[in-house]
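Researcher: Next entry in the queue.
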Amino acid sequence: MSEIPAKATESEDPSDGARAGVAGDSAVAGATGGAMGDAMTRPRGDARTELTNTPWGGTPAGASGDARPRTTGASTGSPTGDPTGTGTDAGADIGTDIGADMRRATAKSPGGPRGGASVEPSVEPSVEPSGEPLGDAMWQSSPPGSIYDYIKVASFSIGADGLVDQWSLRAEQLFGISPERALGMDPIEAFFEPDQRERGQRKMAEILDGREWTGVVPFRMPAAEDGGPGDEGLAEVYVMPTTTEDGERAAVCIVVDVRTLRSIETDLAASQAIFGQSPFGFLLIDTDLRVRRANKRFASVFGGNVESHRGRTVHDYLPRSEAERVAATLRRVLETGDSITDMHVTGFIPGSDERRHWSINLYRVHSGSGRPIGIAWLGTDITSRRAAAREAAAARRNLALLNEAGARIGNSLDLETTARELLDVVVPGFCDLATVDLYQGLLAGDETPRALADGSAELRRVAFASAVSDAPFIGGPAPVAVGAVHHYPFNSPCADALRTARPQRVPAEDGGLIQSTLAVPMVAHDTVVGLAQFSRTKGSEPFGDRDRALAVELAARAAVCIDNARLYRREHERALILQRSLLPPGDPEASGLDIACRYLPGNAATEVGGDWFDVIELPGHRTALVVGDVMGRGLRAAVAMGELRTAVRTLALLDLEPAEVLSALDEIARGLGTPGGVQQATRAARQPRDADLSEVYLATCVYAVYDSVTRRCTFANAGHLPPVLVEPGESALMLDVPPGMPLGVGGEPFEEVEVELPEGALLALYTDGLVESRDHPLDEGLQAFVGALTDPSRPLEDVCDHVLNTLDTHHGEDDIALLMARVQGLPADSVGDWTLPREPRSVGRAREYARTQLTAWDLEPLVDTTELLVSELVTNALRYGEGEIRLRLLLDRTLVCEVWDAGLVQPRRRRARDTDEGGRGLQLVGLLSAAWGSRRTPAGKTVWFELPLPDGGTPLTDPAEALLSLF
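Model: Structure for this entry, 967 residues:
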């Protein structure tokens, strides 16, 4: 063990040594507690100088023969480094502790003191500087929390034989050796390394020879009782010679743990750094919740110097309510010892009205003995951080609101629904009350509302939402009901917002519920479509600039969606009007058929389709039934459907066969997508090029011609769904009609199928919207449709309603067209049919047949006209036709007369000159009949005319006047 150099001096008088030893005990403790950083090794002269300054007021070594120290009273003030500031006398503590410890250690010794030095102090009344005695107060134990609870000071004595004969309790605590083990132990052998023991024995001899010695000595604890190695340590040792009662030399040793002193020195430096250099406010609050110490940072914030804050409470710094909360927290920390982390405190600093925010950390402070002595307060100003956090939170909230608006606004193409979606987003997340007004002209379909420039145009309240009550405008203007039409005064902020397209603040009414309102114009594509008002009630935060920008963004998003919905509604209504105008008006009628039809357009969320149906009356009480579907939606599909429907009606009047009609329609459909028409489309089809599918019009169509006389129906299909037939007493079945290619594809002929329909049979034509949807495949839909036609005998209107209610017709994905016809053929007694030979007598015979048949039908008013027209047609057949002649009269809702022959030349009406003897027969037919015409047949041609029945309300033309009008 290396020994730190120390200086040893020899006392001239043993009694001086004894006095110096005891006095040195006090001096070391006082010096240790006061200096904390002085040199560990001092010359004897320095030690004696310190002894003169001890709080005991005793004499230096050699000044008195009394070896017992005398006390003169408690020291005023606290020794340096005393964290509690209790003002405990260090000298009195050390003397009392040493004496008490050594008495207890001696009492524990089995044999008592072995002639060692007696250092027990005498109990004498001490005197203050005023001369008044203190009694026994100085000899009581120091209260907990003194400096000696932190400094490890111990004492023991060495007898004349160099062995320990007294061992204090503090020595037991420092070295970890019990008195029973320590008494009689050689300190050199116990604490020194083997290579240092010889030198230690020489020093011990010098000490027992009457020399004082002081120094810093590294030592090793004696081996533990379990045989383990002892710990190493570093101690500052004061050794003072004494004399036993027998006059033998002995020594008293005062030991201080150097490492503890260095730790305290470090703690003191850290404490000074906290109080002097810390950028955070620091307070030390005592058990009375008063400030004992404040650092410079705290004083710079709340004014004054550090000392001016001593004795203050939290009520001197914070508002009353906040101070009460903080005081209650301080008491809880003091009572429970639970620390508080990041407690937010709000208050004001002197000379400023700005509200400040601090983050406070509190923890209880203890003395060395563990007694609570106060609370440490560490505060950080977080005002700017709170402001930044509020800004960030507001930005996140606004972004979340915009994201929600993007997800929820515009899901519908309905104007009112879109306005309500805006209010669902902003109430109550952004405001407490909100309304949406839209221009009445825009809702009515006008392109530019009147009086838009001055902001006074009529508006309709389309949506309102409130998060507070049913009567939101207490103290303000009368509320406007949803759906009501109103306008704002010219000088009002709302009219100004509409006029300038800029948001305006609406002043709050005195005594009202609302404290802040924003009137935000709804601008879409540089056009103001309405006004949105956002209001916050009293108690909420008024609208700021950030709220204003957010309101403008929300209103703009809703305005774009509303304008899109408005444009879609306009296009949808126009397409629907066009489509309905192209469908048969009212309930169509046909000879020999009972007709019922249904048309269901797609809902408001889908575009108008190109579905259509038609019922066309043909000559000879025949009827053409048509159902078609143009592929696509919108106005373009509706226009294409109108063109095809017009073409179908034109081709039907030519009395072409169904396959010929579809072939002509195919050519027309191919020409719809080509600017040059059919011929240009035909030439372009021969040139290899990539087809522009956007310009190709495709359609499906089924065309059927029903003859009420024969009850035969001829079908031709162009890629459409098959017709469904329900015969009386039979199950419904789909007719096997070759589907062919859709119209517009071209290049393929169409086939015809002729079917005889029994009386009372039910025929159904339909489009794919009836039987197909995303949830139901086509096959399932067809089977469901066939299964729904179980009772064809019911009224036809009821059958249509039953089909629509049974099938999934509310999917809104496509239009639905349904055409149903029940067969009611002409009775046999309503048909007159005769064959005439090619001879002149057949003309008279034809007149006679007609007169007889009309008389049987009680149509005498038509006899003269019919005879005249029949005579004219039979004469033309004899002169210009071929083969035998056939005369047929048909009675239904009108009277039809047909003359058949085998000639292929069609009659042509011409205007005869005044000098011509002939050429006026067909003119006469046109004048006397309601309609006339001719058509080709497989065996030749047929010329016909039609007369209204006498009770039909149509006046009959006088034959004499018609004849005179020809000349």
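Model: The first helix runs from residue 14 to 35.
Researcher: Noted, moving on.
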